[in-house]
Amino acid sequence: MKSGARLALIACLGTPIFVAAAPGPQPLSLAEEVQHVTAEVGRYGGRLVVGQRSEPKTLNPVTAADAISRQVIARCNADLISINRVSQQTEPALAKTWKVSPDGRTFTLNLRKGLRFSDGYPFDADDVIFSFTVYLDEAVASPQRDLLIIDGKPPIITKLDQYTVRFTLPRPYAAGERLFDGLSILPKHLLEKPYKEGRFAKAWTLNAASSAMAGMGPFRVKQYVAGQRIVLERNPYYWKVDRGDHRLPYVDEIVFLFVGGEDQQLIRFEAGDTELISRLSAENYALLSQGAARNGWQLSDLGPSLEYNFLVFNLNDVDSKKLPDIAGKQLWFRELRFRQAVSVAIDRDSIVKLVYGARGTPLWGNVGPGNKLWINHSIPHPARSLEDARELLRSAGFSWNNAGRLLDSTRKPVEFTIITSSSSSQRMKMATLVQDDLSRLGVEVHVVPLDFRAMLDRVFQTFDYEAAIMGLGGGDPDPNPEMNVWLSSGATHLWHLNEIQPATGWEREIDQLMQQQMITLKYDKRKQLYDRVQQLIAENLPFVFLATPDILVGAKAEIGNFHPAVLEDNTLWNADELYLRAPNAGIERAGLR
Amino acid sequence: MRKRILIAALIALHAAILLAGLLAPYDPANQNRGFPYAPPARIHWVGRSGVYWRPFVYAVSPNLTGYHEDPSQIFPLRFFYRGDSYKLLGLFTADIHLFGVDAPGRIFILGTDAYGRDEFSRLLYGGQISLAAGLLGTLLTLAMAALIGTISGYFGKWADESFMGLAELFLCLPWFYFLVAMRAFLPLHLNPTCTFLLITCVMGSIGWTRPARLVRGVVLSARNRDYVAAARGFGASDFYLIQRHIMPAAFGVLLTQAALLVPQYVTAEAVLSFFGLGIAEPVPSWGNMLSILQQYNVIVSYYWLLAPAGALVVTSVIYWLLADALHHWVKSHSI
User: Fold this and answer.
1) How far is B84 from chain A, CA to nearest CA, in Å?
2) What secondary structure, in 3-state letters, does A53-93 show?
3) Using one digit for the tens of pLDDT, what is the confidence trace for A203-220?
4) 3 state SS of B267
5) B2-18 vs B307-333: helix axis angle to the nearest 10?
6) Least confident of A6-15, A216-225, A483-492, B233-242
C-alpha cells in the first residue's frame, strides 16, 4: 500500500464520527410508582425502522382521526387504562388501580405517583382533568368525544387529590373502563396556553418544534423530514421497567418511513430497510414465506381478524324522482327472501381460498371467530346451495325466462351494480366472485370499482348506489364500539342511514338490546343480549357477510419480544418491550445516515 | 419474402382473434376456482409407458408449494373437441373447439388467472375487444382527419386557422386526467358494449390532430399543382377537385397513418382498461387482463399473466412493419 493511501486510511479510521446520541434512560427513583412488565429482558440500543403508507396528518392526539397518525401518536403518549392487545382485557396504565361503584356509574382512578412527561415535567391529576376537558370540548371537535358522551351527557370529572380522579357517568356503562383506552393524557404545562387561546387544533402539527411536545409514552418526537420520515427517540422518563429494573424502552429510536402502499412496504421489508411489517395480504405473506428461512424473518398468522367484509344493499329512503332506478330495485332489496337467496348462493369458501389464499374465515354474522369473548356459536352456517336460493326466489315471486335470466314479479330482469373501492384488490376480487356466483341464479351483476372517497360519498351522502362491498370492525372486540353500526340512529347504520324511527321490528329490537347491553354490568347477561343481536342480524341480513382475513405480520429475526396481536397496532403495540438482539444493518441501506 | 412473412403474420393474428371461439378451449369467463394461478400446462409425448401417438397432459392438483402433475392420470389432447358453446364470428352458435381434453382433465396452455380462468382463452377473446377498438378508433380518427385536414388545407384562411388552432388545443390537453374525470360523471354502470363504443369514440376523436395536420400539408401542396389549376380553369367544382385530384394525393398518408394508429389505439385501450376506465369484468380485454399486474406479488410470481403484454408487442410490431412497408410503397408510387 502506498504511504499516502495508508495515511488516508488511518486518518479515516481514527476520525471519531459524531452522531447525535439518543438520551439514555434516567435512573429510577424510589418516589416513582413504575409499572413492571413481565416480558423477556432485552438489551438497549438500535433503531426500529417501520414503513408507513403515507405521512401522519398530525401529532395531536386529540384531533387525529386517521390510523397512520394514531400509530405514531400512540408511541409518544399513554392512557390511564389500556386494553392488552393479546389478552384483550383491560390492564392498569397511568392509573395504578381503579374502583367501580356498585351501580357502575362511578370510576375512581388512583394515578401513579412520581412520574414525569418526556420533557421531565411531573405528571398528576391536573393533567388528567385538563386532558378530558379538551376531549369533551365541542369546539375542539375530537373524534373521541362521541365515545365519552353517554345519553347526550358528558361524564363529570372530579379531582379528589393530586393523584386521585373520579369519573361519574350519566348512567351505568358496561365495561366503562375500556373507554379510557387510547385517550392520551396531555401535558397541561404545554397545551393549556394554546387551548385557552383557541389555537389547540393548530398545536402539535407535524412542523411543531419537538421541544413544544411531550407525552407519557415510551418515545418522543425527535425529527420530522417532510415526505420522508419521522424519527422518535427514547423517552428517558418512561414509567415501565423490566424484571431487571431496567427502564423501558429498549430501542433508542423508532423511525417511520413514508414508503407507500402495501407492495412498497413489502419491497422495503424484503430489501432489509424495515424491521417490521403488518397487515400483509395472503399473497404477499406467501411471497415472504418463500424467503423466510433464508432471510430469518419471523412471520406469523395470528388467525381471524375482527374485521368483517360484507355485501350491503341500499335500503335507504331514496328520492324516487331523483333516483328512480334505485328506488325500483329496492323492492327486491327489501325482500328478505331475496337477500337470503343472495347469501345462500355465495360461495364463501371460494372467497376465503381465492381472495385470502385460505388465510381467512368465512362469515355468516358480524362477530367472527377472532372475537372469542363475544361470538355467538349458535348462528347457523348454511352451506352454499343454488337450489335453496332458487326456492327462496321462487317463493318471493321471482321467475326465470327461457334464457335463464331471473325476472321479478313484473317480468323485469333482475340486475344490479356492486360498487367497491378500487384501492382494495381483495374487495374487488370478492365482488368478481359474487358476480359469478349470482350469474348462476340468472342475476346480472356489474362490478364498478370506485375511488374510496367517491364510494363513501355515494354510500353516506347521495345514496346513489345499489349495492356495495365494504368492511367494518377491527378495533375493540367489545360490543359498545359497534353501537354506531347497529343502532338505527347510528352514524354507520350503513344500509339505512338517518332513520328517525327504527324502520322494521327487528331493528327496533336490536336498538333495545344494544341499549340494554350497554348498561348491563355482568358479562354473562351482556353476552345473552348480544347473542340475540347477532341472531337477529343473521336472520334479517342487513349485511350479507362474506369473510374475514387472518392477521398476517412479519419481523426480522433479530427483533426480541415480538408478540404481535390481532388488535391494532398489531406489531407495535408493545414497542416499549421490543429490542434488537444484534445491532441492525438496515439503517444504512434505508439511507438514514 | 419479407412482405410475404408480414402478410402471413397479419392474417394469422387477425384470424386467431376472429376465430377466438374456435381456437380457445374454454369460455373466457369460466372460473375454475380450484385452480387459481395455475402455471401453463406442460404438454407431453413421453409418459410412463413410453412414447404416445398423441400429445397429452397430466392431471394437475394444487398443493402448498404450487401445482404438481399426477402421472397416473393422463388426458390426451383431442382435436375438434365439443365443449362450451360460443358464437363464431358473432353469428353462428357452435361448440367445436380446435383442441381440448376430457373432463376432469384441464388444459391451460397459458396458465390461469386469480379466478382460475384460462389465460389463453381470455387472451384470444380479449384480443377481439382490443383490436376492434383499435381498428374502429382508427377509422373514426382518419375520417375526422381527412375531413378537417382537407377543409383546412383546401379552403385555408379562417377555416385553416380555426381548425389548426383547435388541433393545437387538443394536443396540449392532458387527456388521461380528462378521461379519469369524465368517468366520474358517467352513469355508474355502463354495459360492456356501451363502454367499448365510448372508449372507441373517445380515442378516435382525440387522435385526429396529428393525421389532420399531415393531410392538410399534403392538400396544401396538391391544390397549387398545375393539373389542379388546369382543372379549375376548365370550370371544375371544389368538390370535384377534392374528390378527383386532392384526396388521392392524401390517400397514402392516411394509409400509413392507419397502420401507425392501430397499435397506438390498441395500447391506449389497454391503458384505459388497466386503470379501470375501460371494459369491466368479466369481459376480457388485454388492458383489464394486465391490470392484475399492478400487484407486486403477481408480477414476481406468475410470469404467464404477462401474456397480454406479449400480444400487445407482437401486434404493435406487425403493424409498424406494415406502416413501414406502406410508407415505401406510397413513396414509390407518389407523383
Assistant:
1) 15
2) CCCCCCCCCCCCCCHHHHHHHHHHCCCCEEECCCCCCEEEC
3) 899 888 888 999 999 999
4) helix
5) 130
6) A6-15
Residue B264 near residue B256 (C-beta atoms within 8 A): no
pTM of the predicted model as reported, rounded to 2 decimal places: 0.83
B31–A353 CB contact, under 8 Å: no
pLDDT for position A17: 35
Q: For residue B265, what is the DSSP state?
A: H
Written as nine digits, the cell of A185 is: 393524557
Residues 6+ apart with CB under 8 A from A11: none
**Domains of chain A and CATH, by start:** 35-275+558-589 (3.40.190.10), 307-549 (3.10.105.10)
pLDDT value at position A583? Answer: 63
- Which are the contacts of B86, defined by CB distance < 8 A and separation ≥ 6? B21, B22, B24, B27, B93, B94, B95
Other residues' Cβ atoms within 10 Å of the Cβ of residue A369:
12
CA separation for the pair A457, B56 (Å, rounded): 54
- The residue with greater pLDDT, A2 or A442, is A442
Angstrom distance (rounded) from CA B334 to CA A114: 96
pLDDT band at A103 (very low <50, low <70, confident <90, very high): confident
Residue A186: CB partners within 8 Å, gap ≥ 6? A61, A62, A127, A130, A131, A134, A215
CA distance A549 to A369: 11
Convert the pLDDT of each residue in A251-308 to its tens digit: 999 999 999 888 999 999 999 999 999 989 988 999 999 888 898 899 999 999 999 9
- pLDDT in the model for residue A8: 40
Peptide bond into A569 cis (omega under 30): yes
Domains contained in chain B, CATH given: 41-107 (no CATH), 123-333 (1.10.3720.10)
pLDDT confidence of residue B90: 76
CA dihedral A447, A448, A451, A453 (to 10 degrees): -90
Q: What ipTM score was computed for the predicted complex, to two decimals?
A: 0.80
Q: Does B243 touch chain A (CB under 8 A)?
A: no
Q: Do A284 and B296 touch (CB under 8 A)?
A: yes
Distances (CA, A) of A355 to A302, A433, A532, B68: 17, 9, 30, 22
Q: Which bin fits A258, alpha (ψ -120 to 50), beta or left (φ > 0)?
A: beta
Are A490 and A332 contacting, i.e. CB atoms less than 8 angstroms apart? Answer: no
Q: What is the pLDDT of residue A21?
A: 60
**A287–B297 CB contact, under 8 Å:** yes
Nearest CA-CA partner of A446 in A466, A426, A425, A424: A466
Between chains, do B296 and A286 touch, taking CB under 8 Å as contact? no
Residue A468, C-beta contacts closer than 8 angstroms, at least 6 positions apart: A311, A312, A314, A418, A419, A420, A455, A458, A459
> A303 with A370: CB under 8 angstroms?
yes
* Pick from A133-137, B32-36, B172-176, B223-227: least confident: B172-176
Count of pairs with CB atoms under 8 A, one residue in A, one in B:
58
Output the pLDDT for position A407: 96
Over residues A332-359, the pLDDT tens digits come to 999 999 999 999 999 999 999 999 989 9
Q: What are phi and psi of A546, to 5 degrees?
A: -115, -70
Of A284, A433, A436, the CB nearest to B297: A284
In angstroms, the separation between the Cα of residue A258 and the nearest Cα of chain B is 18
Answer whether residue A24 shows pLDDT above 80. yes
Measured from the Cβ of residue B265, the count of other Cβ atoms closer than 10 Å reads: 26
Residues of chain A in contact with residue B296, where contact means CB-CB under 8 angstroms, are: 263, 266-267, 284, 287
Measured between beta carbons, the chain A residues lying within 8 angstroms of B294 are: 425
Q: Are A465 and A313 in contact (CB under 8 A)?
A: no
For residues A205 and A60, the answer to whether their CB atoms sit within 8 Å is yes
Whether the pLDDT of residue A6 is over 70: the answer is no
